[in-house]
Each structure stands twice: as C-alpha cells, then as structure tokens.
Amino acid sequence: MTVLKTSMRNFFAHKGRMALSAVAVLLSVAFVCGTLVFTDTMNTTFDKLFAVTSSDVTVSPKEAKADDTPQNGRPESLPASTLESVEKANGVKAAEGAVSSMNVTVVNSDNKNMGSTTGAPTIAGNWTKNELRSMEITSGHAPRGPTEVMVDADTADKHGLKLGDELRTISVTGDFTAKIAGIATFKVTNPGAAVVYFDTATAQRELLGATGRFTQIYVTAASGVADAQLKQNVAQALDGTHKVQTAKETADENREGVGEFMNVIKYAMLGFAGIAFLVGIFLIINTFSMLVAQRTREIGLMRAIGSSRKQVNRSVLVEALLLGFVGSVLGVGAGVGIAIGLMKLMSMAGMNLSTDDLTVKVTTPVAGLVLGVLVTVVAAYMPARRAGKVSPMAALRDAGTPADGRAGRVRGLIGLVLTGAGAAALYVAGTADKASEGAGMLGIGVVLTLIGFVVIGPLLAGGVVRVISAVLLRAFGPVGRMAERNALRNPRRTGATGAALMIGLALVACLSVVGSSMVASATSELDKSVGADYIVQSSNEAQRIVPQAEKAMEQSPGLHHVTRYKELEATLTSPDGKTDDSGITATDPSYADDLRRTMTAGKQSAVYGKDTMSVGSDYAEEHGVQVGDTIKVAFKRGETAELKVAAITDDSTALDQGARYTSIETMRKYVPADQVPQSSMLLATAKDGQEAEAYAALKKSLDDYPQYQVRDQTDYKEELKNQIGQLLNMVYGLLALAIIVAVLGVVNTLALSVVERTREIGLMRAIGLSRRQLRRMIRMESVVIALFGALLGLGLGMGWGATAQKLLALEGLNVLDIPWPTITGVFIASAFVGLFAALIPAFRAGRMNVLNAIATE
C-alpha cells in the first residue's frame, strides 16, 4: 500500500512531465483501436449486405466464382431447363432465374462513367423478388421493357440522376440505352457498388448475348424446410452438375474475397501502429530515466529509511502502469473517433460506410489496454531497475544514478556485433540469386541493423553531434558551443531521443529509394523495349476491352497497326510432366515490334508460326525446356494443343516477365469463337510523321468509352510515377504518426532537461546570459538532436533501399535511383522539426525566475 501511495504521489506530482508520454501511448493505442474498429465495421457492413442478399439456396454454374468474370466477358450461365428442374425439387416454395454481370460500364448522357471511383464494381442484372430482401423501390417502378432501367439511390444521389434520364450501358454484346424508370434504395449499407436493373429479357439479351439463360437461380424454401435439406434436394434434382449453396455458404464465399482485401488493410495499418509503439518506447524510457535521475536524493532517502530495491523498482513500475492505463483508456476512446473519421473519409471517396454499423468488439478495447499498459511497463523496466540500484549513501551525496562504464562498453560491443551481423545479412541479400531467397535475409538485415543502431546510438552521438555542431553551431559562438555540450552531456539520452526519430525517417528513406528506383527502372525499360506509340487499357484492371471499343480503335485514322493482347486461362504440361496453371498470352505478330523482348534462344517472330509458342527463361530452366520441345497446353473452355517451343524469352525484365506467348491464330484453332477472350490491352503504332494526329484521333475514337485510358509513352511514365507517388504519400502519411510521437519525445526530453538544469540555467542567467540567448541555446540543442536522428535514419534507410533494389533487379528493375531532393528535403525538414519541438521548452526556460532557479536544490 505504501508503494502504491508513493507511486500515486509521484505520478500526480509530475503529471505535466508525464503528459507527453501519455499522449504517445494515447496515439499508438488510438491507431490500433481505430484500425480494428474501422476494419470490423467494414466487415460488418459487408456481412449484413451478403447475409440479406443471399437466398435460402442459390444455384449457379459449377465453375462460377463470386468475384470472377470469364475471359470472354460473358458470365457463366445456366439454361432455363435448370430452373424448371429446380422448381420440381422437394421443399422448394419458389425459384426464380437471375442475371448478373460485373463486366459492364454505365455512362450518362454526358458520357461520364457512373461507376464507383473506389474500385467497387458496377453490377447490372434483372430485377427479381430476391432483390426485395435488400432493396425497396422508392421512386418510379421496376423496368418493364428494353427502354427502361432502374438504378440504386446512392448512385443516383452521387451523380445527380433522376427519373427520365438516359443511361448507356456498355457490355461485351454491344451498347444499349435506356431511361431511368425507377430508383431503388438499399435497406442496408451499400459499400459503394453501382447497381442497375433491367427486365429479364433485356438483361439476358444484352448481358449474356442469349435468351432463356440465367447466371443464378434463387431458391426459397417451403415452410419448415431447412436450408441444408433444401440444398440436398436441389442437388439431387440436378444430378450434382451444378454449384448449389445455402445462404450461409454464399455469404461466406462473398465474404472470403472481401476478407483478403480487408486483411491487407488491417495488417498494414497495424504495422504502422507497431512502428509508433516502438518509437513511443524510446520516449517512455527517456521520460522515466530522467525522472529517476531527478529524484535520486528522494530515492536515497527511501532506501535509507528501509525501502528495498524491489520496493523502489516497484514504485517506478506502478507509475508506468498508471501512465499506460490512463494513456490507453484515452487511446481507446480516440480510436473510435479515428475509425469514424476514416469512415467519413471513405464516404467522401465513394465508399459508403454508415456509423449505424459501427462495430466495437469487446476484444478491441481489451487489446488496446493490454498493449498500451504492457508496452509502457516494459519500456519503464530499465529505468526502474536502474532506480533500484541507487545506493543510499551515493544518493544522499547527490551523486546521481550509478554510472557503469563497463555496462557502456558492453552495450557498445553488443551494438557493433548486431550492426555488423545486420550489415552481413544485407550483403547476403544483395548478392542473392533469387529475390525470394534474398527477401528473408533483407528482413533480418533490416531488423538487426535497426536494433544495432539503437544500441550503438550513444557511442555514435559523440562523433556525429560534434560534426553537426562544427558545421552548424560554431557560427553562433558561445551559445552554439553550450548547445553542443548540452547535447553531448548525456549521450545515452541523446541517442535514445535521436533513435525515435531515426526509425520513422529510415523507413521514409528506404521507401523513397525503392519507389524512385522502381519508376526509374520502369522508365528505362519502357524506353529500351517498348516500340508501340500508344497503350490502351481499362482503368479497372479486372475489366477487359469490349469488341466495339476494339473495333473503334482499329478504325482510327493515322495508325500503322493495332496489336491485340489476350490472356487465356490454360494448364501447361512441360516435357518433365509437371503442370502449371498460370496461363498463356495470345498476341498479333506485330507484338514483336511493339514489345522488343530479348531472346535467350530462338526468334520472337517464330512464335507466330503454326502451333508454336514461347516460354520464359525461368520456366525453361526450371523444367529443362529447350527450343524444339513440345508443351501440352489445355485451354480452359477449349481443346488441348501440343505447341512447339520456338523461342525462350529473357526474364531479366520487368515487362511481361515470365509470359508465354502464342499467336491469336493458334489460339483460335483450339478455342471456340464464343470463348475467345476479350483483349486485356491494345497497343498501337502511328504511321511515320503522323504521331500527333494519330494520338488525337485515337482519343476521339474512344470518347464513347470513358472506362478506357489512351496513353502514349510519356503519359504511361507519368501515370506510373503518379501511382507510386500516391502509394508512397499514403505510406508517409501513416509514418507521420511515428514521427509525431518522435517529436513528442524530443519535446519531453528537452522539457525534462530544462527542469534538470534549473539551477545551472539560473547561474548562466545570473552571469549575463540573456533570455534570447538561452532560448536559442535550447533550440540549437534540439536541432542538433533532430539532425543526429535524421542522419542515422536517412543513412540506414538508404542502405536498406539500395539492398531492396538489388532484389528488385532480379525481377527486372535494374536501375538504382537515390531521390536526393527528397532525402535533402527530409533532412532540412528534420531541422525544422527540432526547432518546433524546442518552442515550449525554450519558452519555459526563458521565463524562469533567476533567483528561484539558483536556489533550486
């Protein structure tokens, strides 16, 4: 009880000094809890949607998948006779045929795409009774003929659509227009998909290209018949030739696809929260180390009157427990606020998430509290242990905490060993023959060098701070020299404070090098290998190019040729008997000019002969394939062919690495006409001297198809740069949390340092140091510490990035590009971070009363 009272008294006596550490814990816990609440809420939203839209039993083609669009653009379908068989099964109350396709684009009268901007699909289908489970018609009526369409209310609101407006639907069978006859509102939250409905006959004709066929059959159970029993009855009626699922199984299948995407978001955000926790550990260690040092005499008195080492140790840990608990409780509440903020941001971006579905599981606050308290107590253990070692007589003489030179030497040796081991691991990673083999060593090297730099930080502080001071501070005379000495006074503290900033900046530097190298490598590869002038692709990678758009492009004036690029599902059997399901690509002969692939054997032009193909060098090496060998290719929804290997392409490239090519003519020989895939990409080359005219004409010819992007090589490079830049900016934004925590650490260190040096500051003021000079001294000390952390972090990060690029080179990204403007900008920004962090401590130091400061014990 005495220990608890002492801890409570000390905690509240230093509550101002504890505040910044509590904020660090709060931010880290808030990010963890916010991530969990946000992802749980998204899962709840999708779960409700999938649960309510699933009929008791759903029948679909055997090979159909919830998130899959066949290569020919037409969804797998069932004949009307299947519906008749289902209706006769025992336990069936009702059955209805449904048509659904996600391979569509819907545009308004201004030719603007009505689809989601967040990647959610546009879904077109027929209006069925099953839709009433999740939607209700709130305006107009359901479509009654080929000239009518119904849209969901969210899409109508987003794009200002109203009854009578005309929409054009672009599908694989052609374009058709209809006027909005009705608007239906979701009863549950729609995460962002755009949905349009037609009458059944129109949906069959325009989406499937055939009448009397359905993509699913929705079955309703008779009273008292369980879903499992109904599934069994329907399966028996269909002789097991179809996929039959209960409502739960359908929802689970839909949820599985979304779950993979959600897990990526969840674990990525939790990873950044972990980095913030790691940075916060340094802040907490520094805070408790300084508080212990400032209470040396008090601890000595406690020991002198009978307190044991364990009691002193326990007293400090209880303070940490209180700090962790308060910060974590506030963090849990802030996490819910962050989750709501993220939901609002997603809604602004086009993904609708309702706060009505806000999901706070019991495990979320528990995880936040446990994690926050545990991290705080672990971080405070070393200072607490050091406090317990204070001898009563040394403390009463105000000798401070024991300085252990041997411990410093051991620490330095451990740091050197870890850093050396990490550097060795990075070297091994950089010299690996395969990226998969080097990735593990890269991870080990990153962890070991990071820990090594943290451990060796106090040793590095002396030399690095002196160099920085010689460059920046000497010009400020005595004030600059005093700032340098203050930064060097306690190398362990300076090292820990700088290390907090080092972690975030090391990741920034590493990702900057990797991102810049990827852009430079891809640009170099484009310049070297791509002969095509223009590239046409869908803005949605899952969507292919419809035949009418392809025809419009081929008829565009000024083009020398257009090359089709079709990806096919196929199983390849190599001469060694091993199978591979990664497919094959069919192209026109002009592809050899549009993408100049390097051959390790054979000629690229030979690929376009009769029953010939190429393989990649990695595949050839793995399976012992040589030019002249025969590979068995089983085309999905087609026949099995035996194709002769006419060329082996070099896989040391980032473009089409590992691709296997055959000609479109060969593909047509073995794949039925109605199963020929849509082109996933079109390449085009202008006639000599007509590049500008052809580019303008090509864009105009595809005006009616806003889902496709026409880019020349300059556009493509810029798009690539922007995509990587957007990804990096998002990562930098998440890393900003760790950097904010690091800044709080600098603020806290300086604030406690000012308190620690109160008497010294008073004496300096008494002998003539002005307030302005005092504030400048503290600001300079902060800048030096920040730049120390920046130098270590940027140097470490560039080393990581250079090693990562060596691995990327094995995947064809051969150019190492150091983004010096970014690195320089981050370094300069670190100086401003130091200035900002010193504002409050410097202001408080300048306001000290000189006489009171001198009289301080």
Automatic annotation (TrEMBL):
Keywords: Cell membrane, Membrane, Transmembrane, Transmembrane helix. GO terms for cellular component: plasma membrane. GO terms for molecular function: transmembrane transporter activity. Residues 272-392, 734-849 form the ABC3 transporter permease C-terminal domain. It is found in: Cell membrane. Belongs to the ABC-4 integral membrane protein family. This is ABC transporter permease.
